[in-house]
Amino acid sequence: MLEHTFVRTGVIARLRRNPLGPYLDSLATALHHDGYAPHSIQRFLCAAEQFAHWVYSQGYTVCEMDEDLVRRYIAGLPKYRSGNLPKAAQGLGYLVRFLHQHGVTRPRQAELPTPPIEQWLLAYDAHLAHVAGRIPRQRFAEATSPQLGLIGS
Questions:
Q1: Structure confidence by residue, pLDDT tens digits, 136-152
Q2: Whole-angstrom Cα distance, residue 104 to residue 39?
């Protein structure tokens, strides 16, 4: 699909050498099927190329591309007075969704809140460690001791 989007073979070769190279043909096809104009597809692919280079320069890989990285990238781009996103930022949301839908990336798991029982156990562990002077390993050894008759009786 890149051959239908770009005329210059040098541009096509450069895009294919990009870290996103293996996915750009499919991305261009998806953009085309979703009704984007050829000029918009070109802009989106060039923005994806620049973003991929930035991602790698920050020590990340294609598999780690997500909305958080897009926000960090866009925050560092020069802003237009009109408030519009610069061309280098256009289509990156689409790119991240595309990569996720095709199994290339997975969204980062937000830290889940600690369930109430876990909170209680953590508080109890802290109490035992600080007040009773017990460490978790000692408590486990004591609880499983045959002399106490708790396990194995």
A1: 555 555 555 555 455 54
A2: 26
